[in-house]
Amino acid sequence: QVCTTTPCALRGSGEIVTACKKKLGIELGETTPDGKFTLIEVECLGACVNAPMMQIGDHFYEDLTPETTDKVLTTLAEGGVPKMGPQTHRKAAEGPQGKTTLLEEPYGPECRDLEQIMKAREAAAKEAAANKK
After folding, report:
1. What pLDDT, in 10s, does the model give residues 85-118?
2. Span of 15-19, 93-97, 123-127 with lowest mean pLDDT
């Protein structure tokens, strides 16, 4: 499944479709003679930040070029397991310049001590009951 929605199209999904057609020897909507691959064009798969991308089975292959597309398809055809996710140096959905924000360790809110909170509630309930007498 090759995404061809606007973000992917602007980043070269047409070239990815062409690379798939060339590598697999089929057109959109067709299946390879061995039954391993069916090529279809789909609308947004939700990985726009890493466009262009394709989904094979349950796995996303992102930041594709015609060369990386060929490599993914070759690996799969040979029974291998290609690297999933971005096919570049990126990790997950980092921008092309890498991580640029949220560089320090997160702070607060600190985890609450539920045991201490329960003891305080019990003490308050006892005090309230004692004051009613």
Report:
1. 999 887 777 776 777 777 787 776 666 777 888 8
2. 93-97
Sheet holding 85-86, edge to edge: 41-42, 2-3, 54-56, 59-62, 85-86
Counting Cα atoms < 13 Å in the Cβ hemisphere of 132 gives 6
Give the C-alpha separation, 61 to 67, whole Å.
13
How far, CA to CA in Å, does 103 sit from each of 50, 89, 107? Answer: 21, 18, 12
Rg of the chain (C-alpha set): 26
Placement of tokens 């924000």 in the chain: 101
Alpha-carbon span 8 to 51, nearest angstrom: 5
Helical residues (DSSP H) of 1-133, grouped into ranges: 6-10, 13-24, 66-77, 114-132
Two tokens, residue 129: 């009951």
Does pTM surpass 0.85?
no
